[in-house]
Every structure is written in C-alpha cells, then in structure tokens.
Amino acid sequence: MQLKGKAWKFGDDISTDHIAPGRLFHLRSNLPEMAKHVLEDADPAFASSMQKGDFVVAGKNFGLGSSREHAPTIIKLAGVNAVLAKSFARIFFRNAINIGLLLVECDTDKINAGDELDVDVKAGVVHNLTQKMDIPVAPLPDVMIKILNEGGLMAHIKKHGGFDLV
Q: What angle do CA 85, 87, 74 make, to 5 degrees?
C-alpha cells in the first residue's frame, strides 16, 4: 500500500465535532452530502479545496469526542487517502479501521501544509517529497493492512464469511 498526495495541516485535539459538525446532524442519512462539509469547522476551505488522494495531517489526539462513526466515514467519502497524526483517540482509531480509513501515527512536526507526501505503509515510512526527508512510522500489522485493503472490517467479514485474519 503506497499512497501519494498533498498535506492539509491541522493542529492538536481535532474533535469529531470539527470533522462532522453537529449542526449538520440532519445529514446523517446522506453521508455523501455531509462529506462536502468535512472538517470545515477546523478549516473552512478544506472540504471545497482538497483533492481526492490528499492527506489530513494533524497533531495529537485526532478524533477525540463522541464515538460518532460519521467522522471517519465522511473523511473517507471525501477522498482523503489517510490521516497522519501524532496520536488518535482510541474510539476514532477503531471506527476508522472498521470502515477502511487508513490512520498513520507519526511525527507530523516536519510536515507543512501543501507538502507532497508519499506514504509507504508496508515499509513504514512517510516520504516528504517537498522537503526531501523521510519520517519513520511503525509498520501496520499485515492483518490490519488486509482489512484496510478489503475496505474495512465489515467488507472483510462479508468477503470471508467471518474473520480470516491469518
């Protein structure tokens, strides 16, 4: 799994309310429409300006707050390749893997807004092509890569008729 795209930089403590604003709760049955507003409370230009394949890059504790599954789902529906952050709220992390959104924990201090990134999940490295530097990440376990490649946990279970984590 190797992904390329542009970095959109956010700070620490980006909550599920920043990602999926509560005022748009009425769109919860129309997630593609809700995805048009993803992260607009953290950066009003993001949803309308990001390109499919771009990366969300943040600081610590990304996804804190409610256990709203809508948050990782609309990030994925918006076309974000992956979210890179120093750390993730645990329930957000689990929800993201369940729906097939790649999350990468790494030191994001050396990534600036607009930097072109190449994320090599298997090798465990983020290549910052703009700054010509590599940022190591802990490689994901093969089973997690398998689940992500199959579109998330539910897609994995449907494909295999249960868990096939070998």
A: 60
Of 70, 75, 78, 72, the C-alpha closest to 93 is 72
- The DSSP call for residue 163 is -
Tens digits of residue pLDDT in 132-162 = 999 999 778 888 888 998 999 989 999 988 8
Q: What is the DSSP letter of 104?
A: E
CB 126 within 8 A of CB 84: yes
For residues 27-39, one letter each, b for 16 or more C-beta atoms within 10 angstroms of the residue's C-beta and e for the rest, the string is beeeeeebbebbb
First-to-last CA distance in the chain? 18
Name the percent of the chain in helix, strand, coil, to the closest 5.
35, 20, 45
CA angle centred on 69, ends 68 and 74, rounded to 5°? 110
